[in-house]
């Protein structure tokens, strides 16, 4: 019997229709919202839809993944040229409810936090119910002591459950938080307290790291002397050692015990401030970047789930400090919004020995491990045995964050730590972006991962490369300034008290685009590789520090006439700090004494990680500058790298002879000092 031609065509098409149906089912299983996106039948389609139909994509994800008190009426109202960024307007929600209450309703005894204390093998676990009760006690305490909606609380604590509860307690009562890395000096802390206009500070008596005690309360006492607005300091006890308490100080645990375990959550607008986080810029003043409620939480949660291939029941091990954006997004908000078990790491990679990470992986059965290239390079030098000593079969995904990872470290991480079976996701993002923007995953099954490349934009992210004329580079196999062509929910909204600086830094360099400050290369296949900073910012072990910030401190030394700081290649830290110092004619200190004094001053006024790895005390009369007075750091960098052929155009220098003086001083310095720091 001969079938009609229409039936024959249907039979011929059937295998393709079934395959398309399977792709749609697989895509919907991967992201349930995709079932409602027209024309999306695979992950490549999903990525394209998220960019070309941005509002539809983010609206569906926001409705499906966040718990709203009131629904939003406007998905997006943005104008990058003016620095106007609004998402999910009209919506009301509470971040702590999204991170805690909704999970307590379904799985109260699931472990929320595993606190990997400094002391090996002494981890402490907290369930979602316990973390909610702790959060409510802190929230009630803050309310009782006068903290109101819209206030900003500064938190200066090591990674610990009470620090997380303090962050979430702020979100519960409608206050913002300003977490300051507990390695910052008293002066750096006081500057951030003043700028955030905090009246309340939360800290601990002492920190414990690498077997050493760190006097955090003492640092806070020194800092608040120059912060007249501070009315109270809540002091928790990390150790049993008593510390001096003043009338301003509050014994935190004692007061928490008087509070109820129920705290009414505030209904917050989507664009209310969630937190401030200070990051270094190319000027001497740190920037207080502002992140808001709904957009940030949604983006942190979505990137956590899809970049790291997180599944319910996994143990997520991000070893970043909570004082940085990585700790905010991938120790706290992203994992907790997804109901995950998240690890808080208090120690160092080599305490008590270089097997610490992998011992932790074995004990806690960590599934996703997220760390910094600095630590990977450090551990690589100790050899494979420290890794292979421990069972790492629980690992499924390895992540890298903070700076581009070099190929040697990537391959060791993949081959030795991951036994060649765990994908390595080299993630690119910033404090400004709120979460991962470019990473190898998510990607179609079996897709390539290239060592040392961030590779693929995340959902809703549209990266572009710009040339020096401000035009978009459309070809592959090209390099340029990395910008993002359209807004996304997780991006920072402004700089606290300085929106004009936000516009000038991120929106004006390439109008209509968000300028990241980084350069990138796009490969022939269209993959992205980050090439480094384009501004005067150094990335030391994943910590951004402005050259001007260090120079400002160095120049305060009475013997210093002027200085210039550049970043140099460092085998462990990625970038090190190299300082050129021009002395006053009246200077009479020995070079060794001056070097010690400058390092001590930088450590005290900023932090230890900002200390120069090499200080060249030059007897040149001046540093190379343009006629307008700007120091030519590009030239100094080439001199240090001994790339004299690459000095480039020197016509803009006020006096080209200054370069020759620096070269001669450097040669003299190298003859005197055999030790190299980079």
In short:
It catalyses: acetate + ATP + CoA = acetyl-CoA + AMP + diphosphate; propanoate + ATP + CoA = propanoyl-CoA + AMP + diphosphate. The chain is an alpha/beta fold and 678 residues long.
What topology emerges from the helices and strands here?
Elements (H helix, E strand, L loop, with lengths): L4 H26 L12 H10 L1 H12 L8 E6 L4 E6 L2 E2 L1 H12 L4 E6 L7 E4 H17 L7 E5 L4 H13 L2 E4 L6 H11 L3 E5 L2 E3 L2 E3 L1 H9 L7 E5 L12 E3 H5 L11 E2 L3 E7 L7 E6 H15 L7 E4 L6 H13 L3 E5 L10 H9 L3 E4 L1 H8 L4 H4 L8 E4 L6 H11 L6 E3 L11 E2 L16 E2 L5 E4 L5 E2 L4 E7 L9 E2 L3 H9 L6 E9 L5 E6 L3 E4 L2 E4 H8 L5 E11 L3 E10 L7 H15 L8 E5 L14 H8 L16 H16 L6
Parallel strand pairs: 4-17, 6-7, 6-8, 7-14, 8-11, 11-12, 16-17, 16-18, 18-19, 19-20, 32-33
Antiparallel strand pairs: 1-2, 3-13, 4-5, 9-10, 14-15, 15-26, 21-22, 23-24, 23-25, 25-27, 27-28, 29-30, 31-32
Helix pairs in contact: 2-3, 4-5, 4-6, 4-11, 5-6, 7-8, 10-11, 13-15, 19-20
